[in-house]
Structures are given as C-alpha cells and as structure tokens.
Design goal:
The complex is a heterodimer. Chain A is of the alpha+beta class. Chain A has 14 helices and twelve strands. In chain B, helix 6 crosses helix 7. The chains are: A alpha+beta, B alpha/beta.
Chain lengths: 401, 292
C-alpha cells in the first residue's frame, strides 16, 4: 500500500516539476481564480452585513436598548435610570427617547413615519446623527418648534423612496406634524441621511416638544433608553451588567432589532449558496477538462506504465494527486491573495456602495469550507477521466487509440 | 547497412554457433544462479490465492505438470487472435504453436501484417488471445485476470519497444527504477540497481539525464536497462532497432547478445532485418498469422 502511494506521489511530483510548465501555471491560476470567486461573494456579503449592523448601531439603536416592561407604556424616572446606567464603566452615553409614529404633511403631500423626541446633548453620545446631517444643522438643547428630517421623509438628497416622501422639503421650510391627534407646525432645521433607509425614514425633535404633543410634560418619561458602549464590549455582557445593577426594564441588544436585516442577510446567503454551487460546477468542469487534456496527451505513457506493471490505481492516484496539488496551490494562493491583498486593500480603500463605504470581510471558517469543496471537486474531476482512460486496453493506449 | 558491418555480424554469429554447445552448459549453471532470486519473485507472484497446502507439499494451481517441459520457458498453444477493424474481422494469428527455451534468443520474423508483433504481445501478456494458451515458466496465464497479469509483468517480464517508450518526465535512472519502486524495493536497492544496470549498458555517466536530452541509441539503452533491471525471466523486444541507424542498432543488438550470453537472459525479439535476426539463436517465421 505504502509502495503504491509512494509510486503515485513520485509520478505526480515528477509530472508537475518536469511536465509542461504552461499547463501547470494555467491550471493553478484558474483554480486560484475559482477559489477567490468562491470566497469573494461571501466576503462581500459579510462586509455588507457588517455595514448594516454598524449603521443600525451607530444611527438607531446604540448597542443596547432599555424599554418599559410589558405592562408599562413609559419608563418612569428616566433621568435617574440614565444616571444608573451611565455608572457602568463600559457605557459611553445614554439617550432617553420618546418614540411614536406621526403623520407629516408638506404642501399637498403626506406621509407617516417614526418620530423621536430626544435630548440632543445626550443623543450625540449615542448615535452619529449629528454627523449625518447633510443640510442645515442638528438640534440643540434649547431648540423648540424645530425638527430634523431623514431624507426618506424630506425627499431629494438621493432618497430611495422619493415618491413616498414629502417630495423635496428643504431646510427652513415648515412641515405639519400630527401625533396623537395633535397637529403642530415645525420648522425644518436639518436633513440627515445615514444611508440606512430605516433610520432615514424618521424625524427628530426635542423632548420638550414631544412631551407637549403627547401630553406628558415634565414627567421624566421615556419610551426607550438607547445605550452606547465602548468599542468591543459584548452586548450580552452589558445586558448582564445592567441586570446586576437592578434594572427591571426590558433590556434588548441591537441584534434583536435586526429582524429585517437577518431577512436580507438570509436572502443574500441563499444567493451566495447558489453562486457557490455554480462556482464549484465550473471548477469541476475546468479541472475535468484540464486533467482530461493532460491525460489524453499521456495516453501512451499510461499504456507504457501499465505494460511495465504499474497498477491502474497507482496511475489514477498519480493524476488525482496532481489535481490535489494544483487545487492546494490554487487555494493557498487564492487565500493569500484575499487575506493579504484584497481584504486589506478594501480596508484601506473602502468600496462605495449605496449603504456607504464597505470593505471585504474574510471569514476563515467559510474559506476552509470553500477550500474543502474545491478540493473535493478536484478529486472527482480528476478521478473520472483518469480512471476512464487508465481502464482502456493496454495496447490501445500504447498505440494512442 | 554497410557490408563491413554485415560481415562482422556474420562472423560473430558464426563464432556464437560454435560456442552454442558450451553456452548451453553454461546457461544451465547460470540459470541455477539466477534461479534463486527468480524463485523468490516467482513465489511472490504465484502467491497465496493460488496456493493449496497439502501436507508438506505446496501445489500451485496454475502450474502445468513439471518434467519434460521444464526447460521451456514460454509455450504458446494454438494461439488465435482476431481484431475487429470496422465491420471486418482480421485474423492476425490463426492458431500459432510456439515453444521458447530458457536462455534462448529468439527472433520473430515475417512480412508486414504477418502477425509478428501480435504474437509478441500475446507471449508478453500485453494482449489476450481470443483462444489458445500462453504458458510462461510453467504458469498458465490464459485465465489470469488483468490485475494479476500486470503483477506478473512487473515481476517476470521486461519490454523494449520500437520507440523506446520512456517516460519523458523521468530521468534515465528514474525510468529504470520505477518498476523496482513498484515492486516495493527500498530506495537504496532500486537506486543502486538502476545505477548498476545503466552502467552495464554504458550509460553510467548519464543517470540523471532526461530522455529528451539523449540520442535515440541512448534512449533505447535506457529502455533495455529498464527492461532488465528487475531480472525478468523473459525480455520482449518489438523491433528495438527500427528507429536506429546501423551502428547504433549493432550496439543495441550487441547488448542483447551480451545479456543473453553472459546472463542467460531469454530474449524474444521481433525484427524484419535479417542481420538483426542473425544475432538470435533461432528464428520463428510467420506468414499470414501462421508459422512458416
């Protein structure tokens, strides 16, 4: 058994080292490209998912959200709870928000959306909304009667759902807002975009204005407290820390708000799997063709090997080993290209996509999985032609028939 | 071919005929010497599946009755080989009976299409006859499966092809020792055996040269070394000098003769040149698939 493996390896190694360099380089190059193709889409998907998550954390939820218990409508004594939460070392800031749905009206157009009543001084520690303003300015604490609109509400500024929007509100215009049956006019102070359409379909006004509209003035109520933690802090640890502090309200991590994102991610995952299957099929066909051409050119050699007593399975194994070495080299080169080339490149030069700047994320577990599948394809793609030819009649092979 | 070479060959052949009687005696002795090593291989080949323990005696099923035929190394009995070429059946061999003695150098001759190579392929187990039997050293090979035939060839037979048939990606030494490697010999064993036999064929200084860097004659010598490296019972050569010039052909044939005389190597060679055949002890002539 060992002798046979030795002879197979010997024949394979000599064939690679002394065989046609052009064919070897071409085969390895093609396999490298196939591997890159197999991991590239996954890396893009991982990059997009990460971007989605970042947008959600940075512009909507923060890392953790504290909500009233199921029986309650509001968190009472919100400022006291905020202080309590902020006592945790990993907490960067908290923002107590009043959150409701409202109806916007501008000229002839109307639309519904989420409206937040915030304390601007607190909000800037939790979300990056201040930096997301693309026209006008962000709210400041003493502001009254002023509102910040997301671009999906205002329209223009490249809104994705322009027809649903108010159709081109500009800073300084006045919009009507109806909340809980009360209608008030607000001057548009700023328009923002996070590039995340769900966050952009909202509006922000001061807590005082919102309290007034909800009829809860000076009650220190909040409907959610968004909590921002230091980078790298695990959300579940923060939740546990909050529970240890005696916070009785509902504590949810941002993951629990990512329902639609998971849906998108799963859909993209399905597309990715289909693309992987096609990629593997292409890999299989290419390996099959390359090995087949290689073997057909060596018909006579196979015949001679059989004639001098080299066993058929040793000959087949030598071709399979060649294919495995090609695939192995292709995988290593492809991985090196991704890990040390393309991924770092996109990290330093992010790709602009509608969601913002995105870089590739290479997941090693996925890469290993793709490498394994490619290896398998190379084995099957080489066994079939090698076995078929080695099985032919010895004299037919020697005579090149 | 020049007359000079032809005369020289004839002279050598004449001398060889005079020496034949002496040679036969010598051969017997050499065969005894070779026998020990060959028996090892033989036993390996005729191994377990065929063995039946019967008291202290070991019987081998494939063996024919020893005795009067023990000096016959190959026996072809009523060999028929038919090829199908499109719709037409071509009878390449029509019942050939042939016996080759141990240590004999036999040439197979005949016009084109007479079935020379076909007969060699049947005797050398490279092909299977439609009917008839090939018995090599008392082993009936006619019922051997392909896998067993492969093993038998690996351990017992050597081949020299018309166009050398070396593996281009292996150097001279590797081409020679590949079959020894397959036999499971150690690195030291197969490397030294290859070096020894390549030196014997005059290529001791070209062990690591690739076939593409060698002349036709040198390649054919590597091919001979490969065929002889594992001490085969029979060496088959199919027009080994067809692609060589006269001088190189002579060198190759001299090598054959040397191994035949000095080692008692049984050689079966197909040729269509009379002066090549003159090297042989006996000539088998074929015409239209039957012995003349």
């Amino acid at each position: 058994m060992l002798e046979k493996a030795k002879v197979s390896f010997f024949l394979a190694s000599r064939s690679i080292v002394r065989g046609n360099r052009g064919i070897t380089i071409f085969t390895v190059f093609v396999l490298t490209l196939i591997f890159v193709q197999l991991v590239l889409f996954s890396s893009m998907l991982a990059g997009v998912t990460l971007k989605f998550n970042e947008l959600m954390v940075d512009f909507q939820t923060g890392n953790v959200v504290v909500e009233p218990t199921e029986e309650e409508r509001y968190i009472e004594s919100a400022s006291a709870l905020q202080k309590k939460i902020e006592s945790l070392p990993q907490v960067v800031g908290t923002s107590a928000r009043l959150k409701t749905t409202g109806n916007f009206r501008y000229k002839e157009k109307e639309m519904g959306g989420t409206v937040y009543g915030i304390d601007p001084a607190d909000e800037i520690f939790v979300t990056g909304l201040e930096d997301a303003v693309i026209s006008g300015e962000f709210l400041s604490r003493p502001d009254r009667g002023e509102i910040i609109l997301g671009r999906e509400v205002s329209g223009s500024f490249g809104a994705l759902m322009e027809s649903r929007s108010l159709g081109g509100v500009e800073v300084g215009d006045t919009v009507e807002l109806t909340v809980s049956g009360k209608t008030r006019e607000f001057r548009v102070k700023g328009i923002y975009t996070t590039r995340y359409f769900m966050a952009d379909a909202s509006a922000y006004l001061s807590r005082a204005d919102m309290e007034e509209m909800l009829g809860i003035e000076n009650r220190d109520f909040a409907q959610e407290i968004a909590v921002k933690t230091t980078a790298g802090t695990d959300e579940y640890e923060t939740r546990n820390a909050l529970l240890s502090l005696g916070v009785r309200e509902n504590i949810r991590t941002w993951h629990e708000f990512a329902g639609i994102l998971r849906l998108i991610e799963n859909t993209l995952g399905l597309v990715r799997n289909i693309m992987n299957a096609i990629g593997l099929l292409i890999a299989f066909v290419i390996i099959f063709v390359v090995i087949y051409v290689n073997i057909v050119n060596k018909k006579r050699q196979i015949g001679v090997q059989k004639a001098i007593g080299i066993e058929q399975n040793v000959i087949v194994a030598s071709f399979v080993l060649q294919a495995m070495l090609y695939a192995g080299t292709g995988i290593i080169l492809g991985y090196a290209f991704m890990r040390f080339g393309l991924v770092p490149y996109t990290e330093s030069n992010p790709v602009e996509i509608p969601l913002g700047a995105m870089s590739l994320r290479l997941d090693d577990a996925e890469a290993i999985n793709r490498a394994f599948l490619l290896f398998l394809a190379s084995i099957i793609g080489s066994v079939i032609p090698a076995y078929k030819l080695a099985q032919k009649d010895l004299l037919d092979l020697i005579w090149g028939k | 071919m020049g007359n000079e070479v032809r005369n020289k060959v004839k002279e050598e052949v004449k001398t060889e005929h005079e020496d034949k009687v002496k040679k036969e005696a010598k051969d017997e002795m050499k065969n005894e010497m070779k026998g020990e090593m060959k028996n090892e291989i033989k036993n390996e080949m005729k191994g377990e599946p065929e063995k039946k323990e019967n008291g202290n005696k070991t019987e081998i099923e494939m063996k024919t009755t020893p005795g009067e035929n023990s000096d016959i190394i190959i026996e072809g009995i009523d060999i028929v080989r038919t090829f199908k070429m499109g719709e037409v059946q071509v009878r390449a061999l029509r019942g050939v009976n042939v016996k080759i003695r141990r240590g004999e150098f036999v040439a197979i001759m005949g016009p084109s299409g007479s079935g020379k190579t076909t007969l060699l392929n049947q005797l050398g187990l490279l092909d299977t006859p439609n009917s008839g039997r090939v018995i090599i050293d008392e082993t009936d090979t006619s019922r051997m499966p392909d896998r067993e035939k492969g093993k038998f060839r690996l351990h017992n037979l050597g081949y020299v092809f018309q166009d050398y048939a070396l593996l281009p990606e292996l150097d001279a030494s590797e081409n020679v020792y590949i079959s020894l490697m397959m036999q499971g010999k150690t690195k030291e064993e197969y490397e030294s055996a290859a070096a020894e036999i390549l030196t014997a064929v005059g290529l001791g200084d070209r062990l690591h040269q690739l076939p593409s860097k060698m002349s036709g004659g040198q390649q054919q010598r590597v091919s001979i070394a490969r065929a002889l490296a594992h001490n085969p019972r029979v060496l088959f050569a199919d027009e080994p000098c067809a692609n060589l010039d006269s001088q190189t052909s002579k060198e190759v044939l001299d090598l054959f003769k040397k191994f035949n005389k000095e080692m008692g190597q049984t050689i079966v060679m197909v040729t269509h040149e009379d002066w090549h055949a003159a090297y042989a002890d006996r000539v088998i002539r074929l015409k239209d698939g039957i012995l003349e």
